[in-house]
Fold:
Amino acid sequence: MRYIKSKLHSSAVVFTTSIMFIMLFQSCKAQNNIVTADIYNPNHILHSMEKVADWQLLNPTERAWNWWNYGPFYAGVMSLYRNGGNEKYLKAVMAMGEKVNWKTRPQPYNANVLCIAQSFLELYEIKKQDYIIENTLFTIDATLNRNYVKPDVTFIDNDYWLEWWSWCDALFMAPPAYAHLASITKESKYLDYMTKHWKMSSEYLYSKQDSLFFRDDRFFTQKSKNGEKIFWSRGNGWVVAGLARVLIHMPKDYSERKFFEQQFIEMNTRLISLQMDNGFWSQSLLDAENYPQKESSGTGFFVYSMAWGVNNGLLDRETFLPVIKKGWKALSESVHANGKLGYVQEIGDSPTDVTFDDTELYGSGAYILAGNEVYQLMGGTVNKK
Structure:
């Protein structure tokens, strides 16, 4: 009898445990389905951006707050304020500006120093205080006033490569600040300078055959292990995001606007076919077999660019929406439980290995910029302040 009772008790425990496991599994499955379905809900998107922004604000790096690494992040924080209207994000950008005394880094000819100035210019439009952009104006004017120097956008063996837009990342760093300053001051000289130098870099680094940018001239002849041209994901992300941020401030009737729109459409259309099945873009865009890893910074900039293009009537919604949603899902799955964004490739200029624990400021910025456009695309209400 004892044996029988024992067996019955064991069977009951096993049965109960099995039922509980099945219920737990079904609950988790249902919860996962809810999460999967919910990631395109505007409120969910807004919460996700805030989570990433809050984590990054609490975890600054040792780098100077006005260096380029912080530029995309604070640009994202500014757009988060404009969408959600939460004053704490406006105050966060103000605190950054006050900490660096509204100054760019003291290298006026280096495109990188103007990345943070994009946020200064946005704040100026809200606060209307001249001191916010005085240094930005000085830095850009200093560059314009050296026009007698012959530009040189080569990279190899060029001791002065940092003084010209000789690497494709530069097209995100400086041009949007020029375009925005032109909009604020109503002086076309800033837009004309930007256009001249963008075209110079484009003629040198843009492959019309591939509708993609080489990072710099070192990559003209380099090939991946599979013999493909090396077009770096984040490098091209910098460019398409830069195009979007230039077009935001460029007048509709500007004589060269069609050039920028055409390049924007060409690049984004090319990128559709290069998206991997997992929703990311390979770090080496033409060689996903060699670099199949998840990478969120390039993908973030691509999703931002595409969503902005649809929101502003430059890209077809029906064509791009599935690509954007697939990319946003991939990005959403890159966020740690505490808000840290993972799979962000380290600072560099070419494809490298990356893990879920890798993060950088510009990755968080790309995520928030992308999220703000997807938020609007999904019907989110924009703050009118």
About this structure: DSSP finds 14 helices and two strands in the chain.
